[in-house]
Each structure stands twice: as C-alpha cells, then as structure tokens.
Amino acid sequence: MRANPEAEAEEPEQPPERQQNGPSGAEAGAEAGAGTGAEAGSGTGAEAGSERAEPGTDRLEKAVRAAETALIEFEIAVETFRVEIENFSRLHHQRLGPMYARLDELDAAILETTAAITGDAEDLRKAQEARAAVLPMPKVEELFHGWIDSEGLPPEATAMLTGQNVKPPSRVRPSEEARKAYRELVRKAHPDLAQEDAERQRREEFLVRVNKAYADGDTDALHGLLDEWTNGPREAEPEPEVPRSELLYARLEWLAERKEVLVAMVEEMEQSAIGAMLRMAPDDPDRLLEEIAEQLLEQVSERERELARLIQVRDTGDGAAAGQAGAAGSAGAGTEDV
C-alpha cells in the first residue's frame, strides 16, 4: 500500500503506477463518487433519500453521496495501511528477530576475543557491556513466554484464548483478490451508510469480522462474508422526521469531521517506526522485508568471518596481528544494523 492512504483513495480497484502531487483523498473520492456513488449507496438511506428528496436538494444529495464515497474509499485505504503496519511489525519480528539476535551474539564474541588477544582493560569493558546486552534482564514478554507484551496480548495469543484459529499473516500486504473482496464488502456494508442506530450497530459488528478476515488475508472468509451480506435480511429505513435538507447538511458536517479524524490517524501511523519503513517501499512492502533479510545475512557473514580471523589470531598467538585486533574487533562490532 502507499504510504499516503489519501492517494490510495483514488484507486477503486487496481493500484496503478504512483502519481506525483495527486489530489487529496476527499477530492479523489469525490471524483470516484461520480462512478461509484450508486454502488456505495445501494440499499441505503442515501439512495432511498433521493427518491423522497425535497425540491431543490438534488445537488445536495449528490454532494453527500460523493462525500460518502470519498470517505469510504479513504477509510479503506487507512485500514489497509493499518493492516500492513501490523503485519510488517509481526513478520519483521518473526523472520528477522533471530538474525538480530545472531548479530548481537557475534558482536559480543568479537569483542570478547579481541579483549583476550589484547588484554586491554578498555577492550574488556566493551566486551562485558556487549555480553550484558545479549543477556538482558527479562522483559515482560519474556516473563510471560511471549504471551503478553507491553501492549497487551499479541493476536496469536488472543486467538488461542478465545478459541479461534491461530493464523499469523503470511505476507505484509493482503493479496489483490483479498483487497478486491474487502473493498466490495466495505462499500456495501459500511456503518456510515446507515441512518439508524440499530442498523449502524449491525453493520459495525459485521465489519469487525470483515476487518479480521482482511488482516489475516483470508480470501475465502471474505468471499463467505460477501455472500452472507448479499443474501442477508434488509430493513427499510424509516422516513425522517426532520426536513431532508437539514439531515444532508448535518451529514456533510459529520463527514468532514470524520475525515479530519482519519487524517490524524494516518499522520500518527506514518510517524511510527514501522510506518516510516513502509514509506521506503510503498509499492511492495513484502519485498522490503526480503531486502532487509538479505542485508542482515550479509552482516552475519561478515561478523562470522571476522570472528574466525580473531579466533585464529588468539589461538596462534600471532603477536603482529594482536596489535591490530582491538581496532578490528571494535570496527566489526560497531557496524550499524538495519
């Protein structure tokens, strides 16, 4: 997904090539609304309202439908970005965590071997600090064996405790088929398309299940939910007790406020560490993980070669090489990790 979900809002189905200086989410969604507003409002109060519109409210009806479509497209983009951040974080820990641990271990071993060669007090202090970093005091997640961390239960633990299937993400970005099914579901079942509290609540509960299936990348579950929604019961929206024009103006105000909330959410996500990493590869976040893994593997290989060289120096007692061991050991351990 793109780093800026507002740009994503202008892409109803297929993600085209990146555009520079594109319109905002609201502007792009309004343009999309001309073609998808009828779909978004199908079976909703928005469409029903157009049939009983007051004289002179036609343009206002169209503006509201376009704004609704724009907001829904923006929310789809924001939720996709949130899912990618969560999946990237989990996969980064699962796949790359062992490599980071291996680098820490090699750094400590390099400094320890260097200290054994030089006998320098400063080298010994650095080696002790590095070893202490490899074996830190237990954190919360370690005390609870990975079942809980500072942010609460991870998704896998929550799923097991609630009797659900444990299904960690297989990739950062859900497949195109999953994204297509998700977009169709949100366009049809979004709570913002409801006018009554009971219908809104029903849609919110349904969308929780939709978001869960999307986060898991479960295409089959998304298709099943789409069938469920298509074949499910529908309740007619009651006639409004206030003039339609008042409802429409209030609706426009609410849509504008909701968009401000979403923009703030996007800014917060983009400023996070994972969000910043995803901005480096907006078109293929899964490839970014592979690139980081390749860099880490190369660093591991370099550290292992350096450690083997230092061990040989230590075991052979090569006095000439011993004088250079301290600097070489520090340089090897000080390489910046990805």
Mind explaining what this structure looks like?
With 338 residues, the chain is mostly helical. Helix content is 71%, strand content 0%. The protein contains 14 helices and no strands. It has helices at 5-8, 25-40, 45-51, 58-118, 121-134, 140-143, 155-161, 176-189, 197-215, 219-231, 244-271, 273-278, 285-316, 319-333. Helix 2 (25-40) packs across helix 4 and helix 4 packs across helix 5. The longest helix is centred in the N-terminal third of the chain and has 61 residues, at 58-118. It is elongated, with a radius of gyration of 28 Å. Residues 6-51 and 140-148 have low confidence and may be disordered.
Radius of gyration: 28 Å
Q: Assign a percent range to the helix content.
A: over 70%
Beta-strand segment tally: 0
Please write the string of helix (H) and strand (E) elements. HHHHHHHHHHHHHH
Low-confidence stretches: 6-51, 140-148
Distance between the termini: 22 Å
Biggest β-sheet description: none
Strand content bin: under 5%
Global geometry: elongated
Summing up helix and strand content along with how strands pair, one would put the structural category as: mainly alpha
Count of discrete alpha- or pi-helical segments spanning 4 or more residues: 14
Mean pLDDT: 75
